[in-house]
Structure formats: C-alpha cells, structure tokens
User: Fold this.
Amino acid sequence: MIQPPYLQKGSKVALVSPAKTVSRESVLPAIDILKSWGLNIVIGKYAFAEHFQFAGTDRQRTKDLQRMLDAPEIEAIFCVRGGYGTTRIIDNLDFTRFQQYPKWVIGYSDITALHLHIHTLGIQSVHATMPLLFTRDSEQSIKSLKVALGLETAPTLNYSSLTIKRKGTANGQLIGGNLSLLVSCIGTSSDVDTTGKILFLEDIDEYLYHIDRMMIQLKRAGKLRNLAGLIVGHFTAIKDNEKPFGKDVNEIIWDAVKEYTYPVCVGFPVGHEPENHALVCGKTVQLIATAKQVSITLSASL
Assistant:
C-alpha cells in the first residue's frame, strides 16, 4: 500500500463536500483549527453549494473533488461532511493523477465509499472525524487525526474498556467503515478484497433487521470468511420494529462471525459518536485482543 506523504506546517490542504450540503458558518471553527496546525486551506468552489439535500449538483461535486484529486500541490483532501451522495459521483472521477500524486483523503460515514475505492488503487486514506464535527468530537479524536496525518506521534493505541468476543493476535491492513456503504459497494468497481485484512464496522440510524441483513450479505459475499480480525465500532441510533427483532447489534454481528477463528472486539471508538478515533485504511497494523485490553500498534515494520 502506498502511504501519501505526511503533512507538515505549510502543507496545502483542500476542503470539499462530495455528499450532503453544509453551511460555511458551521465549518469556520474547523478552518481555524486546521490553520492552527500550520496548514494552508483551499476551499472547493462548491463546498458550500446547495442542490436540494446535496452540496451542489452531481456535476459540481464531481468537478470540485476532481480538481483537488488532480492538483499536485494539494497534500490532503478533507471531506467536510458525509450524509449521502459520494456513490453518485464516484464513477465519474478520474484517479489517474491522484495515483501519480497520492494524497490523504479524510472522512467517514458516506465517505466510506471513497475509502474503499482508494483502497482498490493501493493507496492509504484516513477514516476520521470531519470538519463539520471538529467542535463536537473529543480531543482524543482530533489528536488521533493529527497522528494519522503525521502531525503528532503515538505509535500504540490501548483500549481497556472494549468487549473481547474472541481473543487473539492479528496482523493485517485496516479496511472498513460504514456497514451500509460497505455492502452497497459489493460488486462495484469500489469492492474490496477483505482476505487477510482487519475489518472495522460502524453505522447509524438503521433498524436491527437491516444490520442483520447486511451482515448476512457480507457473509454470503465471502467478506467475513478470511478476515485477520474484526473491530466493531459505534452503532448509533439503532432502531427496532414494534415486534422486536430479538437480538442487539453485537449479537447480530457475532452470529455472523462466530464460526471463524480470528479475534473480534466490540465497542471500539470509531463511528458516529464524539469518540471517533482515526484509523488509516490500508495501513498494516497489529491487533492484540486479550482478556484485559485491546491494543492496535501502528508500526511501519509490520
């Protein structure tokens, strides 16, 4: 996997909105934070456009993102927010120059589709909080993003409060994100091979039976059979029908993977909560799940 160059003071970074509309005022605090990191900000022409629920038309959002993907002087692209819309434009993007000049792409939720596509190109990207949420998310979430981008150092992340469904040690590339987007990309040009990889999952505003259906789809598609490990993050605002489904999210996911042998941990701080720690998609890490804690070692030697 190709790792884009780490950022440093003076790096030029872009803000774009490939999905849902967002106001300029709501992002101003994040712009100040990025400037405090010593970064130079370039804002996409249509970053604050509005076309019904989208940040501009499909053509406008494509044009904005394409410009930043192509520009060799841009070292990172921050997706301002998620929502819905990235999959509508992804097949209209040309990644030729992006592959020549790899750069960090940052975001989560709907941006999962972009992470998956970039993964198929053999380039790392950052699943992390987005500018719209900088003032909501925790200090640790923001710090973890700085670490992922090379602006701070923290080689090992230890988590003692997670539930260990199956102990073990795994080495593999991280990949994953929003469960709904992961499932929707199966069979497309953004579909990823999960063999030997550490998969992480999160989602929001879904029914329990939807989660069950999507986990069954992942299993039927062979995405769960040959994993190196599984990390279950936040499943936020999950709903049930009037007649209960009968299992919670963790039970649903465990049922889908209990026949396998790789380590599984639940409750990792990634997803639609203030504790949304950055994970570098495509980075090879070591996951150690013991009875007492989970550690993820981000080591270049792995």
